[in-house]
Amino acid sequence: MANETPPHATSSEHERDLVERAQAGDQRAFRELYMLHANTVFRCAIMPLVRDRNLAEDLLADTFVRAMENLPRFTWQGKGLLPWLIRIGKNLCLDHLRKAGRTTAWPEGFEQQIPDVSDSNAESLLGRSELSDALRVRIDECMSDLNPRYRHVLELRMFEKRSRQYAAEQLDVTIGTLDVLLFRACKSFRKVYVRRYGSTDEGSEFPAP
Prior knowledge:
This is RNA polymerase sigma factor SigM. 66% of the residues lie in helices and 3% in strands.
């Protein structure tokens, strides 16, 4: 079937059509774009930054309001709408945190997975247990590179501070399997971080579940 269109091409063409219709004022097309991307923006861009579900939901709504306002100026470049939406969501989160006088705190134990923490330039990125905006963006970018199951377990245990029992139920695994999954997710995160940003630190620890 040499003439078949690859599924990803069809999906991309469909999304581009939705974007063009939404830019022309089609509210139904914009709602479909929301349904397509809202969950990913929430889990990958907003929740890891604010770690407060109610606030995250408000910021998600603000993200799509901002997207609707700016959509006429969006230029399709083949990567889809998601990277643009994620950038809007992150910027709104960081603006909110700055206005509230808040910084983002380390997920307990997670610093062991960030090579820069033990590098000599760590003080330029960190204020003791607080994350700089730059490092938080690095973490978010690495999280977005993980497979969904690894990303989910890290979000539940390291960012949302859910119990092992709760996380295991959400992932439909035993607690023992959850611990293994978290271990592998941390290792995978570290590999992604080193691949993206490099490191002089070869050690790695597994945070206690």
